[in-house]
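Retro notes (design track)

What went well: tokenization of the new backbones is finally stable.
What didn't: we kept losing track of which sequence belonged to which structure.
Fix going forward: every design gets posted as structure first, then sequence, in one message. First example under the new rule, 437 residues:
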């Protein structure tokens, strides 16, 4: 299986385009014509449907290209060609570090809490992201097999030679009127054929078709052999509703979590397409928000709590209805009283561009948004915070921005490696957060 690795906002072009011109364009990769045509069709479909636009049409040097947006993960084309999209910070830190960072950040999303970070990061040095996910799933299923697959009593009807359970008289007469050696009976059978095992078998068959690495293929085939006598779930949604982890089945938890992702497309965004080519894509804004929320809560001083996605206020009322909900990403509270409003932004700032034109790369709309949050949640006084990822161009907090009437806005870097928020010296935020978690 072949593929390419790119970063957020990179563009992809048809290899049949003018190669001499296009190959010198930064952030542009050339693709086989049939792959580009498929991506172009996806971009047009997304634009027409008005869905989350993880791919869009644009131009480079007068030629048509498709551009990925702020989504990361894996795009899997119908013929198995994979496009791995990594966080844009990887352009500075390298592909391996970007892949490892993404794995660490994804663990903060509930569906990916089962990732064993050290093992996954070791694999990421030599495997694309999708293969790392597959390897983690296979490891979890192998753990189930080692600790013991659970059986359950299952009601069954069959025409058998020795009577078991209860004789079904009407069926017995219909099938065995002339056969005295058979009994049509309904009985309970202790079997591995239970919903948990069926969905794991179905997920194993999926990843066996997806994986391209020899190690994953071999382990997937071995596990499929173990599950050979268990039917493959033909209705995963229904089987997942029947999943019941009895006492002593905690070792199934991780494997079932991965199976849900594989069979039920429970990633934040899944591009299925008309050709059945599953892709796992994650909006970096949401991933960054989850990462900050998890680790910032550990940096809080005693007596304060962190609330995510508050929905207490709206911008206006109209005909006794609330319009335009104000939903800050994070809210620091003490005894349920609002203290600080915080919003995360997955954008790379440049502290060296402080002139009136570039303004560090900040967006005016974000300032309007934080001003509205401050008026509603803090009565127009106190501190609101914009959090951006720390980079070598944004290593220290910016000087405070002052709104009228006592509302202050801070622009702070969050260190992804050390997992903590950098605070300005001698400011009121030190009451809420420790300098380092």
């Amino acid at each position: 299986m072949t593929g390419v690795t790119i970063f957020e906002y990179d563009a992809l072009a048809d290899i049949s385009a003018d190669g001499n011109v296009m190959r010198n364009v930064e952030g542009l990769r050339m693709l086989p014509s049939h792959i580009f045509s498929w991506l172009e069709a996806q971009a047009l479909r997304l634009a027409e449907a008005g869905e989350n636009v993880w791919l869009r049409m644009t131009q480079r040097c007068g030629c048509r290209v498709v551009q990925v947006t702020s989504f990361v993960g894996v795009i899997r084309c119908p013929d198995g060609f994979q496009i791995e999209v990594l966080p844009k910070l990887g352009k500075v830190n390298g592909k391996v570090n970007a892949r490892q960072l993404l794995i660490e950040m994804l663990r903060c999303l509930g569906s990916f809490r089962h990732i064993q970070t050290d093992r996954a990061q070791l694999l990421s040095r030599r495997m694309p992201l999708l293969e790392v996910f597959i390897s983690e799933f296979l490891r979890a299923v192998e753990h189930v097999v080692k600790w013991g697959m659970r059986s359950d009593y299952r009601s069954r009807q069959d025409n058998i030679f020795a009577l078991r359970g209860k004789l079904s008289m009407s069926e017995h007469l219909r099938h065995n009127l002339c056969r005295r050696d058979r009994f049509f009976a309904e009985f309970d059978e202790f079997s591995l054929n239970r919903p948990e095992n069926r969905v794991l078998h179905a997920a194993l068959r999926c990843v066996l078709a997806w994986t391209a690495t020899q190690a994953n293929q071999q382990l997937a085939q071995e596990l499929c052999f173990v599950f050979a006598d268990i039917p493959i779930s033909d209705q995963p949604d229904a089987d997942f509703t029947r999943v019941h982890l009895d006492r002593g089945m905690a070792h199934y938890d991780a494997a079932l979590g991965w199976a849900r992702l594989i069979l039920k497309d429970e990633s934040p965004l899944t591009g299925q397409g008309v050709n059945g080519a599953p892709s796992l894509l994650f909006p970096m804004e949401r991933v960054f928000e989850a990462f900050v929320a998890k680790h910032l809560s550990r940096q809080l001083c005693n007596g304060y709590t962190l609330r995510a996605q508050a929905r207490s206020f709206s911008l206006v009322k109209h005909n006794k209805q609330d319009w335009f909900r104000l939903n800050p990403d994070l809210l620091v509270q003490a005894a349920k009283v609002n203290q600080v409003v915080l919003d995360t932004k997955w954008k790379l700032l440049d502290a060296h561009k402080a002139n009136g034109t570039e303004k560090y790369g900040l967006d005016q709309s974000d300032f309007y948004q934080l001003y509205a949050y401050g008026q509603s949640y803090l009565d127009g006084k106190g501190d609101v915070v914009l959090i951006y990822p720390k980079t070598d161009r944004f290593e220290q907090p910016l000087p405070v921005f002052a709104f009228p009437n006592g509302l202050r806005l801070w622009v702070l870097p969050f260190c992804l490696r050390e997992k903590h928020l950098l605070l300005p010296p001698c400011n009121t935020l030190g009451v809420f957060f420790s300098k380092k978690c």
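Added context from the reviewer: The chain has a mean pLDDT of 83.
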